[in-house]
Design brief:
Strand order of the largest sheet: 6-5-7-8-9
CATH topology of the largest domain: Dna Topoisomerase Vi A Subunit, Chain: A, domain 2
CATH architecture of the largest domain: 3-Layer(aba) Sandwich
Strand content: 15-25%
Structural class: alpha/beta
Number of domains: 2
Mean pLDDT: 90
Low-confidence stretches: none
Largest sheet: 5 strands, mixed
Length: about 200
């Protein structure tokens, strides 16, 4: 339907475009393309997509130990007896766990912060899983904490804050070695770069 030369989008399509536009990295034009792609899908495929989204929201939880996303608690990594519980790698997001796991170079456990300290965005240390990390260090016999936050301003500030909190606890704190490009995200690093950064991590403090 047209009005004064302007295309009026059907309300269900407009709603889908609006929701897709809220996704990270999806601008208005990409949202429109995706919406019309979904519109052309066979009904069975569209329903499968919708059901997969609902299933994620209904069944995915946070591991009570490391706070990674999982469908069972504790998660497979925390419950695996072959993982070294004395070494914990601290990352910002669940996608960072996947990136490091792809290297097959790390055999300890993880701790997911779910973000980085960002005062401009109203995110303080109390909004992240930092206190939970400190409790783990005090109670789980952890000997080394690897800070694998993203090599950008927010990630570095978050790592510095965590280091200050860990120093009184007497645990060894290390950081991924240089070689990770500044301004990048761990989830986008290739396996070789991440493997070398893990192998050559340096001690802090």
């Amino acid at each position: 339907m047209y009005q004064r030369g302007v295309v009026i989008t059907a309300e269900p399509v407009a709603r889908l475009i609006d929701e897709l536009n809220k996704l990270p990295g999806i601008g208005p034009r990409s949202a429109r393309r995706l919406a019309y792609f979904v519109l052309r899908l066979p009904e069975a495929q569209a329903r499968a997509l919708a059901e997969a989204i609902l299933e994620v929201k209904e069944k995915i939880i946070l591991c009570s130990i490391c706070f990674n996303v999982t469908d069972r608690d504790p998660c497979p990594i925390c419950s695996a007896p072959e993982r070294d519980a004395r070494v914990v790698c601290v990352v910002e997001e669940p996608l960072d766990v996947e990136a490091i796991e792809r290297t097959r170079a790390f055999h300890g456990r993880y701790h997911v912060l779910h973000g980085a300290v960002s005062p401009l965005n109203g995110i303080g240390p109390e909004d992240l899983k930092i206190e939970e990390l400190l409790r783990r260090v005090r109670s789980e016999g952890i000997e080394e904490v690897i800070l694998a936050t993203n090599p950008n301003q927010l990630g570095e500030a978050t790592a510095h804050y965590i280091l200050q909190q860990l120093q009184p606890l007497g645990v060894q704190v290390t950081k991924l070695a240089s070689g990770l490009p500044m301004g990048g995200d761990v989830e986008f690093m290739d396996e070789v770069t991440l493997s070398q950064a893990l192998a050559n991590r340096r001690r802090l403090g």
